């Protein structure tokens, strides 16, 4: 992808005036090379800190990496000249959504709702300047949900859906909110509103709805849609996803977390999102007993090496959490280990290293050591 961007930049330069660094950085952001965009912009912003578009592009790269401190610094630098622009307000919204999610991960519901409200205010301001843009309508719906205004969020999702009736993402996002409100049955009406003139579009919408119900709704409720999707689907990747979900997660009342670990061991990238779906249905407080029954004594922590605070995160004053699923062996050591959720990737390695250092008094059944799964949370807090 980076090679393709470089070729495009070369072609543009040959076709006309040389492309400027900000435009190059914007192309890198669009391609997903956020560190590359920041590296490209660094010399420019060092000599021209009042370059508003450069600061906004840098902020976009930081926010895409979920580095809220970095994003805030660049937004501050652009605020004087750009605070009323739609782009500035959109980035402010996304920044506050990151903070809302982080606060929720830390268990601070009140703080999370406050950031959600700030996000909603910012995107409302952006919409007043450029109304009707699907991206802004999506952010408004997400922000209202983050601020706890669920019924307003449902209406906002409907407005977004009217604007983009063929976008599977809006159906998936609406489903996620309906599931949170314990209104899965309302997805029938949601699907009835979807277009029917293109089978590929309709199948993508059905899959998006199913993804947000699998693992979070009882199997008896999701099975009709599951069977319908499976009967129409011809994509082997989607078929593999459906097979994994049915076998490992949704076909039983109890999560088969050792099988989840087996799957993640073989597919550490977890392109199917099984780990996230597992955690959505069985929150981090869930422990090994869901798999192994009440006759098992769970493992007891004996020793550990505390996690090292990443220098970049400490310097930027960033806090966070990482939730992992680990295999505790019969000898009390930690076997395979996978990140299920993280507020920032910069914490993942340190958290994993700390958990791998742990030693447990092993779980036992009838006095005999056994291997069990365990959900573990590692927090990074500045003192």
SSE order and pairing:
Layout: H1 2-15, H2 21-31, H3 34-47, H4 52-64, H5 68-82, H6 86-105, H7 109-129, H8 134-146, H9 150-163, H10 168-180, H11 187-192, H12 199-211, H13 219-232, H14 236-250, H15 257-266, H16 274-281, H17 289-292, E1 296-297, E2 300-303, H18 311-315, E3 320-328, E4 334-342, H19 348-356, E5 359-361, E6 363-365, E7 368-370, E8 372-380
Antiparallel strand pairs: 1-6, 2-5, 3-4, 3-8, 6-7
Helix pairs in contact: 2-3, 2-4, 3-4, 4-5, 4-6, 5-6, 6-7, 6-8, 7-8, 8-9, 9-10, 10-12, 12-13
Written account of the structure:
With 383 residues, the chain is mainly alpha-helical. It has helices at 2-15, 21-31, 34-47, 52-64, 68-82, 86-105, 109-129, 134-146, 150-163, 168-180, 187-192, 199-211, 219-232, 236-250, 257-266, 274-281, 289-292, 311-315, 348-356, and strands at residues 296-297, 300-303, 320-328, 334-342, 359-361, 363-365, 368-370, 372-380. The strands form 3 sheets. The chain has a 3-stranded antiparallel β-sheet with strand order 1-6-7, with no helix packed on it. A 3-stranded antiparallel β-sheet has the order 4-3-8, with helices on both faces. A hairpin with a 2-residue loop joins strand 6 and strand 7 (368-370).
Describe, in short, the structure shown:
The protein is mostly helical. The chain has helices at 2-15, 21-31, 34-47, 52-64, 68-82, 86-105, 109-129, 134-146, 150-163, 168-180, 187-192, 199-211, 219-232, 236-250, 257-266, 274-281, 289-292, 311-315, 348-356, and strands spanning 296-297, 300-303, 320-328, 334-342, 359-361, 363-365, 368-370, 372-380.
């Amino acid at each position: 992808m980076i090679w393709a961007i470089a070729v495009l930049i070369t072609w543009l330069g040959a076709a006309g005036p040389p492309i400027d660094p900000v435009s190059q950085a914007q192309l890198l952001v669009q391609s997903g090379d956020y560190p590359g965009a920041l590296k490209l912009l660094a010399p420019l912003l060092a000599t021209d800190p009042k370059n508003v578009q450069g600061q906004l592009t840098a902020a976009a790269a930081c926010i895409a990496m979920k580095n809220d401190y970095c994003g805030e610094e660049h937004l501050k630098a652009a605020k004087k000249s750009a605070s009323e622009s739609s782009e500035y307000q959109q980035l402010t919204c996304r920044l506050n959504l990151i903070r809302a999610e982080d606060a929720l991960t830390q268990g601070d519901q009140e703080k999370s709702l406050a950031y959600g409200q700030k996000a909603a205010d910012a995107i409302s301001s952006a919409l007043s300047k450029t109304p009707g843009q699907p991206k802004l309508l999506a952010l408004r719906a997400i922000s209202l949900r983050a601020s706890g205004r669920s019924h307003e969020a449902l209406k906002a999702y409907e407005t977004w859906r009217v604007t983009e009736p063929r976008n599977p993402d809006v159906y998936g996002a609406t489903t996620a909110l309906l599931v949170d409100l314990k209104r899965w049955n309302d997805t029938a009406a949601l699907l009835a509103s979807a277009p029917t003139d293109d089978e590929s579009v309709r199948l993508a919408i059905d899959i998006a709805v199913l993804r947000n119900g699998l693992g979070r709704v009882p199997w008896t409720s999701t099975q009709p849609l599951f069977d319908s999707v499976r009967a129409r689907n011809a994509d082997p990747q989607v078929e593999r996803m459906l097979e994994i979900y049915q076998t490992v997660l949704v076909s039983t009342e109890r999560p088969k977390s050792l099988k989840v670990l087996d799957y993640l061991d073989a597919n550490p990238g977890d392109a199917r999102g099984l780990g996230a779906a597992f955690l959505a249905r069985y929150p981090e407080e869930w422990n090994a007993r869901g798999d192994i029954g009440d006759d098992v004594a769970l493992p007891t922590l004996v020793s550990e090496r505390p996690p090292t605070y990443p220098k970049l995160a400490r310097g930027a004053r960033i806090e966070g959490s990482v939730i992992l699923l680990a295999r505790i062996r019969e000898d009390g050591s930690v076997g395979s280990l996978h990140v299920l959720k993280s507020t920032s990737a910069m914490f993942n390695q340190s958290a994993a290293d700390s958990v791998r250092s742990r030693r447990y008094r092993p779980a036992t059944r009838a006095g005999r050591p056994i291997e069990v799964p365990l959900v573990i949370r590692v927090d990074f807090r500045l003192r």
